[in-house]
Specification:
232 residues, mainly beta, 2 helices, globular
Amino acid sequence: MNILNKYRHLSVFLLGPLCFGQYQFEIKNVSKNYDAVIQTENCYNDRCGGKGTVKLFDHKNSKVQTFVSDDLVVYAEQGQKLVRGKLIPLSKDQRSIIVDDFNFDGTEDVAIRNGNMGNYSGASYDVYVFNKTRMGFVKSKELTELGSNGLDIFDVDAQRKRLISYGKSGCCDIFTIEYAVIPNKGLDKVFEKEEDMTVEGRVKVTTKEKLNNKWITRTKVYPSDQYNRNKK
């Protein structure tokens, strides 16, 4: 019995750090098809980061795929106490994992937070698209670059089938770039807008639009107090 107890305690000692040494979070209904469990090693106050994993499950609790991030940033929600080994629920609005149809092929894709390597230390993401042949998610080089270079992950305009990225230079020069997704080819930049507010009292807006494979450039200057940048 003593020998059995000795090995039983040894098993707990060896397995303990794997099961209980990490901070664990659960996001139910992260999308219409998936739930997610997040594990990360380092947390300070309400912010976690460092190497981590995201395990994706279907709604029948079958594991679909595991993703690894070198800097998986997770924020606890208000009032939550972070305890190692305890499964902590998060809302689906948590930005450590984003599920959407990024390439407009009718299947959901996955973006996993990987640090703050974007424009002005904005959030950056590794992006994986669903591959019907492999029946799994495959990392997209183009979409990962797009998801790692802007102020945050790109917006998805499903109606127009456009991906929209944002950036800035200094305090007063804002850029918007739109991409069309071409099946079996990749991204095609089709629209650029620069909003230049470096001169006090005015906004200079320059747009470039790709029409019939030709770029059309337009420039207009607005008084600052009459310019609404959210107006289409």
